[in-house]
Amino acid sequence: MIDRAIRKLYRLFNNGQLPKFRLPFFDRFVEWIIKHHAPDVVIVHEPEFLLYVTSLKEKYGFRLAFNAHEYYPLQFEHKSVWMRTYGLMYADIYRKYLDKVDLMINVCESIAKRCKSEFEKDSIVIPNAAFYRPDIQPRKVGEFPIRLIHHGAAIRSRSLETMINAVAKLGDSYQLDLMLVENEKGYYDELNDLVSKTTNVKMIAPVDFDNIVPFINKYDIGLYSLKPSSYNQEVALPNKLFEYIQARLCLVVSPSVEMSNIVVSNDLGIVSRDYDEGSIAAAIGSLTIERVNHCKEKANIAARKLSAEQYEGLFLNSINSI
User: Which residues contact 303 (CB under 8 A, 6 or more apart)?
Assistant: First the structure.
């Protein structure tokens, strides 16, 4: 984004401080787009755009929706320089501009409640759900070994080694496949080295996004443990959780508030007592074959209710009402 690039350049020459101004040429560019297309509704995905779009609402008569994909004021809270610059900027944008937004969309209830308590802004919740797959049915587990899958990005802050060590403790009656994208090559290599020292964990090649759900249907348990090293991780409700559900898997998750709410309220699996490898291993090991099969059937029942189509309906109804 041009605006963000210029702001970064400004920081280099101003001791890390962010500019308070809007960019005039970007103002004109945004206005040209709106004037040219004459939209009824403008949907903003980046907080910076609120600076430019809110001033045009009255002139062009459109309604404004802000689709916040996370809690931006704490997006990189582990970086002190970021918090003193962008963190403060995003908090300031939220304070000044959220009341000009006609519809705010958040990805989970925890963030929606925080926006209400801190900025007095109501929002609807639209998580990153997967599309409903009526063609997929639960595959019954007959005997050990129980097969687990975790897919996603190899990012160090997610501490994926915890899941590797947890399953390794359980022995060969449990087998974990990791289907990872090499977002951080060094970390991916470290995980690969750790996996090579186990007998029941292995890395497998990623499949295309559209093939994830049918591919993982052959597994028994979808596994995800995420240590709450930041607020957004603490309240994370990742798309892989919904992909596990569409694949009709039993779920094992760490006690993150949003993931555990989904799992417990729909009887989809088990929540570990804590985030450490011992707690995760204990949670997995407590599941009988009968319990795994029961949770797979519960995933089959919940698949339609927790699908993207259901949330799309909420989104469209909300857009039509503003």
Answer: 132, 133, 245, 246, 248
Which is more confident, 117 or 22?
117
- Would you place residue 9 in the very low, low, confident or very high pLDDT band (cuts 50, 70, 90)? low
Handedness of CA 256, 258, 264, 267 (dihedral sign): negative
Rounded to the nearest 10°, the torsion over CA 112, 116, 121, 123 is 20
CB neighbourhood size of 321 (10 A): 9
Contacts of 237 (CB under 8 A, 6+ apart): 107, 108, 127, 128, 258, 259, 262
End-to-end CA distance of the chain: 28
Residue in 269, 290, 283 with CA at minimum distance from that of residue 222: 269
Pick the CATH number of 2-125 from 3.40.50.2000, 3.50.50.60, 3.40.1130.10, 2.60.40.790: 3.40.50.2000
Give me the residue label for tokens 């497998």.
204
Q: Which helix (H) or strand (E) holds 257?
A: helix 257-265
Give the residue-averaged pLDDT of 265-272.
99
Residue with tokens 């993207």: 308
Distance CA 56, CA 41 (A): 12
- Asked if the model's pLDDT at residue 25 lies above 90, the reply is no
The set of residues, in sequence order, having a beta carbon less than 8 Å from that of 118 and lying 6+ positions away, is: 94
Q: Which class in CATH covers the domain with range 146-302?
A: alpha beta
Tell me the domain boundaries of the chain.
2-125, 146-302
